[in-house]
Amino acid sequence: xxxxxxxxxxxxxxxxxxxxxxxxxxxxxxxxxxxxxxxxxxxxxxxxxxxxxxxxxxxxxxxxxxxxxxxxxxxxxxxxx
Length: 81
Known about the structure:
Elements (H helix, E strand, L loop, with lengths): L2 H11 L6 E4 H10 L2 E11 L3 E11 L1 H19 L1
Antiparallel strand pairs: 1-3, 2-3
């Protein structure tokens, strides 16, 4: 299946109920977007990958909320046409 699918599977198996966990590189990309708040979980031993730093996705930023609202407004306007 490839590395991405295997990593996603490991993230799920080492996660916690009600939490969204992501790898360090994904967390870096999400932080760079300015749309998400993440909290470092720390090192986690991931089968087949070794020790990985992972993060929890905590929330969307205010910018994300407004961006999402704009998307929704646009989608509704197109639906009404």
